[in-house]
Specification:
It is built from 7 helices and 18 strands. By secondary structure, it is an alpha+beta fold.
Length: 298
């Protein structure tokens, strides 16, 4: 039995989950091997992707497919059936993506698609479309000495005194080409064996404690915006809504109002900035460093 931590929850697993930090504590979520039902009662089929079929109810998520193991997530557990198909790299990415995202919804956490860092106790999330450089921005923050809290899947926990970032994956997933380029800036990386084609920085002292969210930074991919700016509320809430992780899953799980109300509350409490597109990695490094210095540390 393996024991890990994700978003403040302790996971006991029959399977190794190398993207997660180890944690020895009482179990909140079990990941076990076992039989998985063929369908859910009164379900909604909300996606088909690469010969996989996804069913959801208010408290369950079911995956079945020709070339992937069947999985089911419920409030306190994930069951994986590997009798026909092994837990390969694609199935692993689905497990630590949509399935852990479902458990966050079930446990009252808001999952966000972004990369998060801890800047002297102040949480910062970088948002952006695929290829915008979220992971690269977080990696540059790590070079500045600030721990990484999560990459790709971030977890927000709303409390009475604000929104808090819970650590999820304390490393960043970089394309091998980007990782080799970043090596010139002093960021040493190692290749993933569970995400082929990706590398991660060799990290020390990842952030393992929640911290209060201080700012959200949306990374632009176009040349339309030339300067950093603070987004008006209507643009800020749209930017956050666009980057809610597995939002369709949240909707069919009865979390549409939960998502909307948290996004509206976020823009009341947390500033949302837009960072212009940088032409080069050196330009992105300088842009991120300037943002951290002027907006977070001041």
């Amino acid at each position: 039995m393996y024991s890990y931590s994700i978003a403040g929850l302790t996971v006991h697993s029959d399977f190794p989950l190398p993207a997660l930090p180890s944690e020895e504590s009482s179990c909140d979520i079990s990941v076990i091997e076992g039989a998985v039902p063929l369908s859910l009662p009164e379900h909604i089929i909300f996606d088909t992707w690469r010969n996989t079929w996804w069913q959801a109810t208010l408290d369950s998520l079911l995956l079945s497919g020709e070339n992937t193991p069947s999985m089911i997530a419920q409030r306190g557990k994930i069951v994986i059936d590997t009798r026909k198909n092994p837990l390969d790299s694609m199935a692993y990415s689905l497990l630590i993506g949509p399935f852990f995202c479902a458990l966050m919804y079930y446990n009252g956490l808001l999952p966000v698609h972004g990369s998060a860092v801890n800047v002297d106790g102040k949480g910062v999330i970088f948002l952006g479309n695929s290829g915008s450089g979220k992971s690269t921005a977080a990696a540059f923050c790590r070079l500045l000495g600030y721990p990484i809290m999560s990459d790709d899947l971030c977890a927000l926990n709303r409390q009475d005194n604000g929104f808090f970032l819970n650590p999820v994956f304390p490393s960043v997933k970089l394309h091998s080409e980007s990782a080799s380029t970043l090596d010139a800036f002093g960021l040493k990386s190692e290749t993933h064996n569970y995400f082929p084609g990706y590398s991660s920085p060799v990290l020390s002292e990842p952030s393992d404690r929640p911290c209060k969210l201080h700012a959200i930074c949306v990374l632009s991919q176009t040349d339309q915006y030339r300067e950093e700016c603070l987004l008006e509320n209507k643009y800020a809430v749209n930017s956050i809504m666009e980057h809610i992780h597995s939002r369709r899953l949240g909707t069919v799980s009865g979390k549409a109002n939960f998502i909307l109300m948290n996004c509206l509350k976020l823009i009341e409490e947390v500033p949302v900035y837009r960072l212009p597109r940088a032409e080069t990695l050196a330009g992105k490094r300088d842009s991120v460093e300037t943002f951290i210095r002027n907006r977070i540390l001041n």
